[in-house]
């Protein structure tokens, strides 16, 4: 399930977008002004923001710029909504850091499709889709892990760790980053706990000869390559 923040001051449009996004299975929050939107983002980072350009007070454009300037919100996927159609405005929106842009009136089907495409690109782990690499499949909906028709047994932490590494493949993750992303922000756990769970994960993957998918990057952390040439 993805958390989506809709920033829109026109109640009718906000309501329509809210209903459609909820119907599509997203967890949706609404904000009717830049200040409300900032408060929502401060409280909890959404997975994606649908941001109206024209808002009372501070504009959506200024808000997008501010989010792009902050370390915490820099990577937030943003789809900008606007009634303007001129090319110059589209460029201003994309310059301010919007990832995509939709002109009003838009079809909710198109908005849903754009949201899905953007999440797939920037936050695939929130879509709840099965991820497959090197014939190893992880299905977050059923929490099943299979390799060539064989089901593998993983503990809950190993499952989250594998899902995170597979949805963020080809990147080296430090132990500290893995603790933040897989264990949660506010938990104090020693970094070597990560090594313990990586070992358990490799053991769980061994029956399908997939243990070498989790590579140790000496002095840095771990990574899962998209293509595994070793096995
Ligand atoms: Ca508006």
Description:
By secondary structure, the chain is α/β, with parallel strands linked by helices. It has eight helices and twelve strands. The strands form three sheets. The chain has a five-stranded parallel sheet, with helices on both faces. A four-stranded antiparallel sheet has the order 6-7-8-9, covered by helices on one side. A three-stranded antiparallel sheet has the order 10-12-11. Helix 6 crosses helix 7 and helix 6 packs across helix 8. The longest helix has 15 residues. It is elongated, with a radius of gyration of 20 Å. The relative contact order is 0.10. The structure holds calcium ion (CA). Calcium ion binds next to loops.
What is the β-strand count?
A: 12
The end-to-end distance, rounded to whole angstroms, is 33 Å
Bound molecules: calcium ion
What level of helicity do the residues show?
Answer: 25-40%
| Average pLDDT level | 89
Quick one: biggest sheet? Answer: 5 strands, parallel
Strand content: 15-25%
Oligomer: single chain
Low-confidence segments, ≥5 residues, pLDDT <50?
Answer: none
- For the CA atoms, what is the radius of gyration? 20 Å
How does the helix and strand content classify structurally? alpha/beta
Q: What is the string of helix and strand elements?
A: EHEHEHEHEHEEEEHEHHEE
Query: Count of helical segments?
Result: 8
Strand order of the largest sheet: 2-1-3-4-5
| Apparent shape | elongated
């Amino acid at each position: 399930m993805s958390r989506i923040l809709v920033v829109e001051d026109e109640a009718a449009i906000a309501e329509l977008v809210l209903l459609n996004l909820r119907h599509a299975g997203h967890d949706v929050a609404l904000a009717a002004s830049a200040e409300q939107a900032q408060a929502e983002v401060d409280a909890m980072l959404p997975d994606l923001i649908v941001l109206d350009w024209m808002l009372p007070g501070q504009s959506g454009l200024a808000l997008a710029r501010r989010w792009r300037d902050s370390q915490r919100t820099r990577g937030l996927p943003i789809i900008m909504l606007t009634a303007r159609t001129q090319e110059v405005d589209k460029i201003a929106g994309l310059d301010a850091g919007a990832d995509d842009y939709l002109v009003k009136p838009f079809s909710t089907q198109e908005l849903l499709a754009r949201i899905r495409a953007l999440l797939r690109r920037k936050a695939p782990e929130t879509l709840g889709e099965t991820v497959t690499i090197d014939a190893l499949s992880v299905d977050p909906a059923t929490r099943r892990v299979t390799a060539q028709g064989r089901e593998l047994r993983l503990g809950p932490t190993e499952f989250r760790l594998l899902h995170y590494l597979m949805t963020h493949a080809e990147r080296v993750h430090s132990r500290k980053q893995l603790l933040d992303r897989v264990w949660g922000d506010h938990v104090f756990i020693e970094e070597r706990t990560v090594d313990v769970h990586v070992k358990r994960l490799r053991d769980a993957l061994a029956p399908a000869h997939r243990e070498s998918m989790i590579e140790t990057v000496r002095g840095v952390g771990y990574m899962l390559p998209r293509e595994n040439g070793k096995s």
